[in-house]
Structures are given as C-alpha cells and as structure tokens.
C-alpha cells in the first residue's frame, strides 16, 4: 500500500513597520512601483544592512508558540543566486544557525514536528508587461519573512490544510503576521513523495524517495488540491513501475488545477551559503526570556479553556476562537455575565445551558446581523456588557426569543442597552395576569366560531387561540401561561 510523505515550507510575511534591513516601510501595497526603496534594499555599493529588532522578536515569539528552541546565538548567511528580482545577487537568510530549531504542533491529535524557523528578506517582484518586456518592482525587496519548515509528518492533504489554518491563527493571535494567503502574506511550498508499506505496516524499500516540491500555492483549498493531484499523479507513476527517480520542482497551476514541472531542484551546494560579514551575530537569550514572559494564551489552550471554564461546546469554542476579536468579546461577556448572574436563581445559572444560550445568539443571530450590515464585532456599537445583560434577560425569561431578535437588532444599530430598548418598545414579557387576561378575553371575543368548535370537542383548536394570544402580544407572553389561562376560561363558561 502506498502512503504520502508530506512536509511543508511556509513563508510568513512579518507585520513589522519597516523592512528587514532598512527603514523603508515593510508594506508597500498600493504604492507606485519603485517608490518604497532606498540604497540598502536596492543594494547600492557601500551600504550596510541593519537587522530589524521587531522582526527578530516576531520570529522568536512564533518559535516559542511552536514549542521550538530559541538559539542563544544565531547568524545571517548569504544565499547566492542570480535572478533579476534579487538586486544583491544573494539573499540574506539563515543557514546553519536559525533563530528557532525543533518544535511541534498537535493538529487533529497528530503531531507535526517543526524542523526549524529562520528569518530572511523577501525578493523584489518581476512584472511581465503587456509589451512583452519584464519589469522589476523593488518595493517588496527586503520585506521580513519567517520561513518555517516542518518534518515530513503531515498525514494527508486535509491534515496539511488544518496545520496551515492553525499556523495562520497562531500568527494572528501573536500579532506577528496577518498571514492572509490570498494576499501573499503566507506562502506555502509542499514537499511530497510516496512510499510503500506492507500488510504489517512495515516500510518497504527506502524510507524516503525523491520528492516533488510544489510551489506557488496561494490558498488553503489549493494546498489540499495540489497535494491530492500529486498523490494521484505519483501513484500512477508507481503503479506503472516508474516512481519519480529525482527530486523536482513543480508549480501549482490554478487555471488547470494541476501541477506542472518547472526545473530540477537546486541542491544546497548550488547556493554557496556563507556567513554574511555585514551582520553581527545575534545574541537572543534576553529577547527570548522577554518574549516568553509576554507570550499570550494560544488558540489550542484558549479553546480548551472555553470548553472547561465556560461550558461551551467544542465546535462553538473552535468557531469563536478562530476570530481573535470575537474571542476577546466573548471573554468580556462571560466576565460581565458572572456579575449579572449573581442575583438570579440557581436554576438559570447552569453554566452549560447559559453557554449554549450565549453561543446560539452570538454565532447565528449576532454574527448574522453583523454580516448583513458589513460590520465586525469591533466596529459594531454593541458592547460586551450590554450583550451580557441581554443574555441574562433571556435566561431569566424576562425577554422572549421573538422579542429578543428585535432587541438585538436595535442593540447592534444604536449601542443602547437591552432593558432600555425593551421599555421603549414595550417588548418585555407580560407577567401581569390582569394584562394577560385582557388579551385572552379579546381573543375569545374575536374568534367565536373557534370557541364554539372547541367546546364541541375540537380540543386541538386551543393551539390556534394560543397563536392569536402570541400574535397580539408579539410573543411577550409565556406560552404555557397563555395555555393554562385559556383552558381555565374555556372550561368555566
Ligand atoms: Zn530600503
């Protein structure tokens, strides 16, 4: 049986203010070509690179979050190759002393080892003009990148996708990168080969065969598709008795949804790495200690805590924690809820019931209202304190679900507190028996034929009358109370 052996190489564009080795802005989007440049990032003779401390901190922070070891000493090396978008004819990268080595992430209960992570500068961009000429835009040259390399531990195309999604989430939690694949802030190359296992699970032949590196994958979906395509292509080669005999590089072609051979893969020797004499060795012990102290709670820990502490369902906790802003909102709502709940009956304090009520209103109703209005939780007027009060009103039965949606819509639009809106719009539950009796009398008076048929034995018609009461009061009466009071009236005269 054949099984895939998959490893990933990810480039994360770090969210620093300036480039890796000069003071130019690191994010040049929407600027005219070749306006975000200086003598350093265009490699003018006599200039010297100065490493960006923020980029180093971001790399260290990411390394810690990936359970990696931060090097006490780390250095930069020159990776030599000639290409029009590389003005120095070498890239400043890290070879044998990367800032991070080792590490792992657990994805879907399977461990993916991290081999290393190192800092480097991005190349410029070649633009192919309609006139058939190629132009070079140096705005991107020198943007800081963190390259993360995994062990060949990725079990399947789906596993690869889940790993990358978690990596993006971690980068966002840490504030080191927006990691948007469509915008090129996170780029992924995937290495894949196949190997054979016998019926007992033992590896037949070589442990690792020549691999194919798939480049230019620009979305999570395409990572999955490119790997699925390669598994199919390589399986056919194996079945034909001619598995890949050399390592190659292929590019993902979005239009045809296939991979296409580009060139034979360079060996490390081709790059003639050597230490960059212009950049001093980095001493990282102090930075590592500081970053470790400041490391925020990571997504996996947060998801587990949302389940354990707040009583949320695992799938709800996952959905909330995928959005850092929503996560902060929910934390604040739960902290406010405990004070709102301190004064109510023990019955409604059931933590998991409360959590389900909250996640239901948050994930379907509130998020829906925000999407309709093209808002997110930070730009909307609703605040966590008011949402906590809203949940309390629902939990204690003071507000019905029907009226709840009206109140929530108003909260999103105006930022007003829910009890104020209920008072203004007369949306509270009607508890006053006299008021309910008035409505019931009116309903009975307006539906004489239904009353007559009910008395003649069509007992199920009580549903119609309850429906009328709910309609008259816009759902503000408890349906059980309405039923009881209707029955008393109908049976007594
Ligand atoms: Zn520059």
Blueprint (SSEs and pairs):
Elements lengths: L1 E12 L39 H13 L3 E2 L2 E2 L2 E4 L9 E4 L6 E2 L2 E4 L2 E12 L3 E4 L5 E4 L6 E7 L6 H18 L11 E12 L5 E2 L7 E6 L2 H20 L8 E6 L4 E7 L9 E2 L6 E2 L1 H10 L4 H10 L5 H8 L2 H18 L9 H22 L11 H12 L5 H14 L3 H8 L7 H14 L1 H8 L6 H11 L6 H14 L1
Parallel strand pairs: 14-15
Antiparallel strand pairs: 1-11, 1-12, 2-6, 3-18, 4-5, 4-17, 6-8, 7-8, 8-11, 9-10, 12-13, 12-14, 15-16
Helix pairs in contact: 1-4, 2-3, 5-6, 7-9, 8-10, 9-10, 12-14, 14-15
The chain binds zinc ion.
Based on the model shown, name its key terms:
3-stranded antiparallel β-sheet; 493 residues; 18 strands; elongated; 3 domains; alpha+beta; binds zinc ion; 11-stranded mixed β-sheet
Question: What would you note in describing this structure?
Answer:
- This protein is of the alpha+beta class and 493 residues long.
- The chain has three domains: 292 residues, no CATH class; 129 residues, no CATH class; 60 residues, Arc Repressor Mutant, subunit A (Orthogonal Bundle), CATH 1.10.10.
- Helices cover 41% and strands 19% of the residues.
- The protein has 15 helices and 18 strands.
- Strands 1, 2, 6, 7, 8, 11, 12, 13, 14, 15 and 16 form an eleven-stranded mixed β-sheet that branches. Strands 5-4-17 form a three-stranded antiparallel β-sheet, with no helix packed on it.
- Helix 8 crosses helix 10.
- It is elongated.
- The mean pLDDT is 91.
- The structure holds zinc ion.
- The site of zinc ion has 8 residues, from loops.
- Zinc ion (ZN) binds next to loops.
